[in-house]
Design a protein that fits this description.
The structure holds two protein chains of two kinds. By secondary structure, chain A is α/β, with parallel strands linked by helices. Chain A contains 16 helices and 13 strands. Chain A is 36% helix and 17% strand. In chain A, helix 8 crosses helix 13. In chain A, 55% of the residues are buried. Chain B has two helices and five strands. The radius of gyration of chain B is 17 Å and the shape is elongated. The chains are: A alpha/beta, B alpha+beta. At the A-B interface, helix 1, helix 7, helix 8, helix 10 and helix 12 of A face strand 1, strand 4, strand 5, helix 1 and helix 2 of B.
């Protein structure tokens, strides 16, 4: 398929890897965080770590919206879905995320709640139009890639004057999360993740552009290379990061020039600005409360806010204490460091959110990467 | 979740919609987020909405830079690194 196959050429990948090996200084470590779950998935799926020299290593980041959504928000969504008048629509990934008390949206659906999988927020708007007797709630989740489509669907519901459509908004922002990963001065030394540079998000950057990373680069003196999700894109970005480090630079560079510009998608940005407003703070799994890191519906569109319509009162909920998702999301631990990995936690029966989405670090490692471990993980009983 | 796939625009439809194809699969999607979409353009599709147009010249340039970054005849060596 055009724009896909040509960026998956294995021979070319080996040659670029040879250049990385030739240019990476033997007495130096290069530790790069791929922020996005999409990159984590590509690195695992194509075995890119096996192509890199031993002193160039990848650290998985928190860029998987399903992974960073705290348990309490899933609990809230289940409570919403249990209301007899509500039809809750959301993306498939979210249905299997473990919630409090061993439940999940999928189990709530099995227990009779009207929960439906959709592939586009447009489907939820059309459902509300077709079924006026139902309260259709769209459980919205995602980084800046996904936010503009939610904004347009809310705008469409507004134009269609749909009184039975609302959105339970969990849209989060990328730059504050990168800042939270890098801003470790207040943490004890063993909780400071060691990163020398970032592979920046592919599709988030089609929306926000490369400009927002500039301040982070300057403040923390780390290079950022925005990269596409195909394996050759990732390898080229690693080479660009190695070259920046060798030259002593810390700049924003754009490898994904076929889709990303410096300023991003203005139409998408204005759609988001019209419909959403900044939350003062939002809880992230692993990163805790981050100020100005997530969006809510703006006052002009408050009528479509499910949190206001159904008076959602957040109830604090704790993660499974044995689950290491929080440290995996901050890059402090690898999936195989978790006692649950491959024993009681697998994609078929996930205990933590990182094992649910295909782009979660644990799911990617389970599906593709575990065969490289010295002690193979045991299969789930 | 941020997965978006390159699809070809086959026909423009009313209400800022378009018919697109990928590997023989055809779908009706929104092009409200991308200006001046034409038949034959490739756009990145995400949850039913085109996010951006793919730039053919920049795509060619990327491939050219990848070939430039590759060391000829070094692929066998790369495989033996680990």
């Amino acid at each position: 398929m055009k724009y896909i196959d040509e960026y998956r050429d294995g021979t070319l990948a080996l040659s670029i890897a040879a250049t990385i090996a030739a240019e990476a200084a033997i007495d130096r470590r290069y530790r790069f965080m791929e922020f996005c779950g999409g990159h984590t998935h590509a690195i695992s799926r194509y075995g890119l770590e096996d192509l890199l020299p031993a002193n160039v290593t990848m650290v998985h980041g928190p860029g998987c919206p399903v992974c960073v959504l705290p348990v309490g928000r899933i609990d809230d969504a289940i409570r919403l879905a249990m209301r007899p008048e509500v039809t809750l629509c959301t993306y498939a990934d979210l249905l299997r995320v473990p919630a409090s008390g061993g439940t999940s949206l999928l189990k709530a659906k099995a227990a009779g709640a009207d929960i439906r999988m959709i592939t586009s927020p447009l489907d939820a708007v059309l459902m509300a139009e077709a079924e006026p007797a139902r309260e259709v709630v769209f459980l919205a989740i995602g980084f800046e890639t996904t936010t503009p489509s939610t904004a347009l669907s809310i705008d469409l519901a507004h134009k269609k004057r749909l009184g039975n459509f609302s959105v339970f908004c969990n849209h989060v922002l990328t730059p504050p999360a990168i800042r939270a990963i890098l801003d470790t001065a207040h943490l004890p030394p063993d909780e400071r993740v060691q990163i020398d540079g970032f592979i920046g998000p592919a599709h988030v950057s089609t929306v926000i552009g490369t400009e927002p990373y500039r301040a982070l680069c300057a403040q923390f003196a780390k290079p950022v290379v925005v990269a596409g999700f195909e394996p050759l894109d990732v390898l080229q970005a690693i080479l660009m990061l190695v070259r920046q480090m060798n030259a002593g630079h810390y700049r924003v560079e754009n490898q994904y020039i076929r889709a990303v510009t410096a300023t991003g998608n203005r139409l998408a940005q204005s759609a988001m600005a019209e419909v959403f407003a900044m939350r003062d703070t939002f809880e992230w799994r692993g990163l805790g409360q981050l100020p100005h890191s997530a969006l809510r519906l703006s006052d002009a569109f408050a009528a479509f806010d499910a949190e206001r319509r159904f008076c959602v009162v957040p109830v604090a909920a704790a993660d499974n204490p044995a689950c290491e998702c929080a440290d995996v999301l901050r890059g402090l631990k690898k999936p195989a460091d978790c006692k649950l990995f491959g024993t009681t936690c697998s994609p078929e029966a996930p205990m933590g959110s990182c094992m649910v989405s295909p782009e979660g670090a644990c799911a990617a490692h389970w599906t593709y990467g575990r065969f490289r471990d010295r002690i193979p993980a045991r299969a789930a009983a | 979740m941020c997965l978006a796939i390159p699809v070809r625009v086959e026909a423009l439809l009313p209400d800022q919609m378009a018919r697109v194809t990928l590997g023989g699969v055809s779908k009706r999607v929104s092009i409200a987020l991308v200006e001046d979409v034409c038949v034959g353009d490739y756009v990145l599709l995400h949850v039913g909405y085109a996010l951006t147009r793919l730039d053919p010249a920049e795509a060619e340039l990327t491939l050219a830079m990848m070939h430039q970054a590759a060391v000829p005849g070094m692929s066998a060596m790369a495989g033996a690194i680990r």
